[in-house]
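Q: Here's a chain of 257 amino acids. Please give me its 3D structure as tokens.
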Amino acid sequence: MSNTSAPRPDAGREPLAGHFDREIDLSRVPVHVACVMDGNGRWASARGLQRTDGHAAGEVALLDAVEGALELGVKWLTMFAFSTENWRRPADEVRYLMGFNESLLVRRRDELNDKGVRIRFAGRRDWRVPRRVLRRMDESEELTSSNKRMTLTMAFNYGGRAEIVDAVRRIVDDGLRAGQVDERALRARLYHPDQPDPDLVVRTSGEYRISNFLLWQLAYSELVFSDVLWPDFRREHLFDAVREYQRRDRRYGGVAR
């Protein structure tokens, strides 16, 4: 146990003003941005805090990233909140994360709804997820279902391989013959077939891995890696990633003319 008192999620962490400069071409903003929110534990350890304090501090980063995406006009934002591998973490941390995500939905869903954000979830809704959390997820999706300004997808109890396995299981259940199985058939059975593939994926904390995130969808995504630990991430870091994205030449396997 640390003797250092844990900070409130928003203590001393005012969001940036959110003004982006003319280096960002608003006509070429990525339609879909996905984020691997990494570094909460290391952020807490560096301050003599418990790992759970890092998760709490990451809430402000999440909300500021959402605000930044809304300012830019991003239509789809996907955040990696809890992976199928995260169940291997210490039991007390897992219990904290379940409760934290439940309380986050209760505290923030009205605010997101007022901003025109549709909330969705991607992942397995199996026996491991507490029923009360599943109820909050359903309530949040229902409350915000008609919003069109942006879709915020929380990848919760999510794994890229698990999603592909689940899609293949649906193909089998639907009785498709081998000749009927193609990319379109598999894509139609992903968790959210209407969701466009990410144009840009941002991973924080200086790690250079995909970590089983959106494996099918990332075939042609631009990847940007940031050294910033997630609790320190703000919309200006998102703007930096979009600037980097706009400097790249996306050829999708073709040749530039």
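Q: Can you summarize the key feature?
A: The domain at 26-246 is CATH 3.40.1180.10 (Undecaprenyl pyrophosphate synthetase).
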